[in-house]
């Protein structure tokens, strides 16, 4: 009995000991939340431990806040990657620190804030000889602005480079010169362009205008380089900014579309390209004419040179589109086949997306997309010039430009494309899906204040009346954009749709219906007269 009691006491004691040691308690692994901005002076955010650690002697935090560097006036004598050892440069003989941070050197003048030697404008800092040996004292060498060199210091101030070509073309020097204009880092002579440009982008649905940093940096320089130097990339970039402004046309001549149209008129002597009068040489093709009312010429004058059929040897049900793709800077990127998501924002399988481009198939796609995904997938817009791709009788491949009906376009303040009257429409070219660029205010790295999304796209075909041969008129792409003010991107969503439709002239159907009803009515009257006569004969009626 005593032994049993003793065993119980031992078991209870062991159990209490185990409980006290927390062996059977759940262990929680928690750490304090810290970020680089939480680390004070002399400390950095260590990316391994996710905590703040103190820098060593004579060290300060780097600008990123994630590394320790030598403080001003100290050079690196050893670095293992994780740790740095610093030593002060002799303040009397070699007070400067070399740009790589590993040497001390005498300076011909003052020091910069970071302790390196300072050279005056137009000169570069030379710290080593041609063999790489460190000099006792640095030298400030002047770059030659003479015609043989046309050189200036590069952005690092360490080597002479040829100055920008527009400076040389305008003033035969690396200085823009009095009376000339500097815009976007380029130098231009006076021209018939406005001296100031409107860089605010209007988001009409919100009643809000954003002072766009992209337009501020690029609008004036792109317009000037396009007009004065016939720079093809600059012309495309200017056209893209007009497209981001919804192709809107008004009496304002210094916004993106106003500048584009000014250049279009000023370069009339250059002629057109591809035998298309709307397509000016050097410029992108953005408009069908210079005013509304010309839509019927593009949409109803002639049928497509290709016929569609559902059966027989001439079966053809493929609707093929291709696009010339440009980035915001105006660079041509590639030719791209349309049909696997470039015009369809809703995610789906490639097979279902391609099904929209089967002739005669009415197609409708709707979905809701988070704004955070749009910001992630579209860091900047891509621009598409759309064409219908087909082959003519001899097998030669041809492209037919597809017109665009932008429902957001304003002509002198009026939304002329939102009505059903084709005679008021103003057809355009070039489309984008998501614009997260023009709505950025302070820096290009900042999150946009507003984004613009193509929330409704419809491709419609009109059947040619009085024909049974599968003929259709050129297709029309209608697009409507939504302006979205960014607030909480993780909760904001946007509804988008894509459709392919086929239409026919209802007037023709109405006429045929009236004829059919008239014929049937006449037959019915004749039939009733015959029946009446037959009935009278049977009853011997006089």
List the helices and strands and how they pair.
Blueprint: H1 2-20, E1 43-46, E2 51-54, E3 59-61, E4 68-70, E5 74-79, E6 84-88, E7 96-97, E8 104-105, E9 123-128, E10 134-142, E11 151-153, E12 160-162, H2 165-171, E13 181-183, E14 186-188, E15 200-203, E16 208-211, H3 213-229, H4 232-244, H5 256-266, E17 272-273, E18 276-280, H6 295-299, E19 321-327, E20 332-338, H7 350-355, E21 363-370, H8 371-377, E22 382-391, E23 397-401, E24 404-406, E25 431-432, E26 434-435, E27 450-462, E28 476-485, E29 493-503, H9 506-538
Parallel strand pairs: 24-28, 27-29
Antiparallel strand pairs: 1-2, 3-4, 5-6, 7-8, 9-10, 11-12, 13-14, 15-16, 17-18, 19-20, 19-22, 21-29, 22-23, 22-25, 26-27, 27-28
Helix pairs in contact: 3-4, 3-5, 4-5
Descriptive overview:
- By secondary structure, this protein is of the alpha+beta class.
- It contains nine helices and 29 strands.
- The strands form eleven sheets. Strands 21, 24, 26, 27, 28 and 29 form a six-stranded mixed beta sheet that branches. Strands 19, 20, 22, 23 and 25 form a five-stranded antiparallel beta sheet that branches.
- Helix 3 runs parallel beside helix 5.
- The radius of gyration is 37 Å and the shape is elongated.
- The N and C termini lie far apart (138 Å).
């Amino acid at each position: 009995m005593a032994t049993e009691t003793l065993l119980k006491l031992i078991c209870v004691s062991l159990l209490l000991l185990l409980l006290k040691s927390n062996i059977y308690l759940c262990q929680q692994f928690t750490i304090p939340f810290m970020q680089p901005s939480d680390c004070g002076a002399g400390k950095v955010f260590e990316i391994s431990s996710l905590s703040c650690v103190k820098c060593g002697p004579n060290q300060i935090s780097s600008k990123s806040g994630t590394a320790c560097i030598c403080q001003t006036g100290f050079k690196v004598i050893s670095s293992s990657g994780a740790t740095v050892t610093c030593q002060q440069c002799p303040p009397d003989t070699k007070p400067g620190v070399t740009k790589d941070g590993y040497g001390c050197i005498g300076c011909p003048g003052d020091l910069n804030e970071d302790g390196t030697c300072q050279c005056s404008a137009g000169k570069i800092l030379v710290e080593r000889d041609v063999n790489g040996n460190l000099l006792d004292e640095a030298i400030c060498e002047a770059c030659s602005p003479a015609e043989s060199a046309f050189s200036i210091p590069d952005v690092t101030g360490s080597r002479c480079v040829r100055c920008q070509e527009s400076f040389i073309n305008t003033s035969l020097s690396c200085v823009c010169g009095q009376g000339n204009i500097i815009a976007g880092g380029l130098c231009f002579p006076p021209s018939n362009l406005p001296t100031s440009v409107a860089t605010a982008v209007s988001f009409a649905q919100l009643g809000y205008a954003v002072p766009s940093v992209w337009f501020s940096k690029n609008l004036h320089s792109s317009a000037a380089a396009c007009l004065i130097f016939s720079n093809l990339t600059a012309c495309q970039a200017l056209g893209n900014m007009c497209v981001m402004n919804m192709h809107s046309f008004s009496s304002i001549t210094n916004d993106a579309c106003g500048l584009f149209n000014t250049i279009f008129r000023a370069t009339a002597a250059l002629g057109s390209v591809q035998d298309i009068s709307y397509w000016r040489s050097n410029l992108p093709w953005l408009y069908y004419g210079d005013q509304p009312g010309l839509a019927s010429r593009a949409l109803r004058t002639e049928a497509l040179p290709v016929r569609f059929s559902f059966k027989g040897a001439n079966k053809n049900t493929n609707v093929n589109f291709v696009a010339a793709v440009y980035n915001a800077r105006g660079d041509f990127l590639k030719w791209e086949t349309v049909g696997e998501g470039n015009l369809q924002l809703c995610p789906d399988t490639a097979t279902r997306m391609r099904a929209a481009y089967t002739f005669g198939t009415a197609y409708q796609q709707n979905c809701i997309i988070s704004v955070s995904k749009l910001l992630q997938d579209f860091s900047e817009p891509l621009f598409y010039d759309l064409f219908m791709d087909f082959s003519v009788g001899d097998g030669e491949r041809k492209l037919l430009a597809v017109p665009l009906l932008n429902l957001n376009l304003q002509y002198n303040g009026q939304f002329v494309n939102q009505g059903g009257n084709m005679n008021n429409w103003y057809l355009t070219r070039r489309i984008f899906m998501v614009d997260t660029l023009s709505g950025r205010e302070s820096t290009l790295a900042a999150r946009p204040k507003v984004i613009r999304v193509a929330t409704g796209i419809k491709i419609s075909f009109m059947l040619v009346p009085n024909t049974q041969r599968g003929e259709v008129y050129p297709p029309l792409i209608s697009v409507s954009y939504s302006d979205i003010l960014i607030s909480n991107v993780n909760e904001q969503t946007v509804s988008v749709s894509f459709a392919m439709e086929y239409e026919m002239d209802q007037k023709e159907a109405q006429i045929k219906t009236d004829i059919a009803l008239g014929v049937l009515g006449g037959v019915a009257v004749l039939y009733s007269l015959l029946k009446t006569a037959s009935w009278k004969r049977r009853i011997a009626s006089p």
